[in-house]
């Protein structure tokens, strides 16, 4: 909304909503949970109404254009009265040229305003971006069009009906995130594997730091200051969730919405309640990005879950709490998502490993891991158990369990929505907290492999082994020769049973570094 008076009217309306909202200690926490969805619907209706008004204003000619159009009409009328008058003909033509020039100037102004908006939202034109847009079939990660024809995994048929394609996407990711059946993974097998991995993690010397002032990381009370900080860190111009309310609305009216959000989040956190949520608070919309391979296969698209801005602000506030503290619990071998960690460290280590072993006259194998749908298949009970072993408090785990409870999503393709499906496993790509949560899973893997004796000694005089280097779910495990491969694969099978993280065997690669030849 570029028109200041329209924006001001929303601000006044929000002030009224804040004044009458059921917030404060004199209101039961459950009240705002019931009130919130209705508030968002009223806000959406107001935004739509004012956007229609703003669009109507943009379409109206400017005062200059209107004046020139009046002058052009008068010149045309004068020419009609004397069609053979050369002077009147010249005046009519010049008047129409002036109108055209003024209309072009108006259009240019609108285009420049839109471009300034895009630049402020972080978008930049580039040759690479243009090539991606112009590619007919896509060619890389994130390129290519939305799917128009997909193979139904159930029937094997190719489906081109635009109304049915989204349901194939939704059903595919529902099945990916489904927990294994008793036949696929007996409960006794899973529980035994989980106990083994957690025992290894229990021996982990690193923990989230204890807070002498109380449980600040897991505090159920979320302050307005935390909301404001999360809002400032939320970029503009991002796609909204199913409610259609983008972050720009919240950022534009921070003063009004921050106390409402603080009351809402505190109620969700269980400040005086059991920690319930407003209806559809965790629901998302799945958009898919083509990766590579057969474009008719739904598995060749990456799912991004578009979550509502109110959900994302809460997740961002929790991530802001957790991020700095998590470094204390995550080994240096993990270089993703944490302050001061660089993926270049992994590259440096792997590039120098062959030279080190050549000097020592030793061989080794590097296993380049690839997990099948890592974020989407992780078992949530495993995640919460790993968090507990790494020092996460009960209240922090409750926050995570609340955000991962009863998650549902619809797929959106070509303007068509699927029905809503349940997601029983995984952390959602699109949630600001998901990357940090996955680090607990990756840390469990690292310490499980170390417990099983997987790794190599970089220094022959040091008995400690280096097991792997990691960047989130992307890991390179170091094996002490071919004889270590069977034990490594067995350890990964146990970890898969415990966590849902299964190797994609068609993509895992083993790189052998043989002993140097004897001179």
From TrEMBL:
Pfam families assigned: RVT_1
Classification via InterPro entries: DNA/RNA_pol_sf, RT_dom
Highest taxon in the source lineage: Eukaryota
Transmembrane region(s): none
Domain Reverse transcriptase residues, every copy: 270-519
Protein name: Reverse transcriptase domain-containing protein
Residue span of region Disordered: 116-161
